[in-house]
Specification:
170 residues, Arc Repressor Mutant, subunit A, two-stranded antiparallel ribbon
């Protein structure tokens, strides 16, 4: 290892270091709301594409459909999302955000902005925009799905893998 590399960490290390700090602080911010990051990711995807089935949302976020059942149950029990029978297939349920869920989304948007501002406190607006663009390009080059944290995804999540899925709850 060269002396320079020892004195000044590389980009990969810095990204990992910041990612770890960001994840830690985001999780801490969610505690007062009684949420965990996977629930927020699922909730966000439901809000972005209301009316999709649990299976479709699971595929979008890279989790086996059977694993999101508990997450959906918790969000539904809190009154933030609801399952409605699909008009196309009565065996499936479409996911929708409730009115109280919309209020929570607004709170999460505020928390997200606060979190990002804290994390990028040393940068000006133009630098933040440049950083977001560069990180987006790197993420795309790495094949990462937009808005999906790879630590939450499951490589086994693909159509047909979840035979144990209860069809009445999708």
């Amino acid at each position: 290892m060269t002396r320079i590399r020892v004195q000044r960490p590389g980009i990969a290390f810095l990204l990992s270091q910041l990612g770890g700090q960001s994840s830690k602080r985001w999780t801490e911010r969610l505690v007062p709301l009684g949420l965990e990051p996977r629930e927020v990711m699922l909730f966000r995807f439901v809000a972005l594409a209301e009316g999709r089935s649990q299976r479709e949302v699971a595929q979008a976020i890279g989790l086996p459909a059977s694993r999101i059942v508990g997450l959906v149950d918790r969000l539904e029990q809190r009154g933030w999302i609801e399952r409605r029978r699909s008009g196309d297939d009565r065996r499936t349920h479409a996911l929708h955000v409730t009115a109280s869920g919309q209020a929570l989304l607004e709170r999460l948007a505020t928390l997200s902005t606060e979190h990002e501002n804290e994390l990028t406190a040393g940068l000006g607006p133009a630098e933040r925009a440049t950083l977001a663009d560069l990180l987006g390009r790197i993420a795309a080059t790495q094949g990462l799905a937009m808005g999906v944290h790879p630590g939450f995804a499951d490589a086994r999540a693909h159509p047909g893998h979840d035979e144990d899925l209860d069809q009445t709850r999708t």
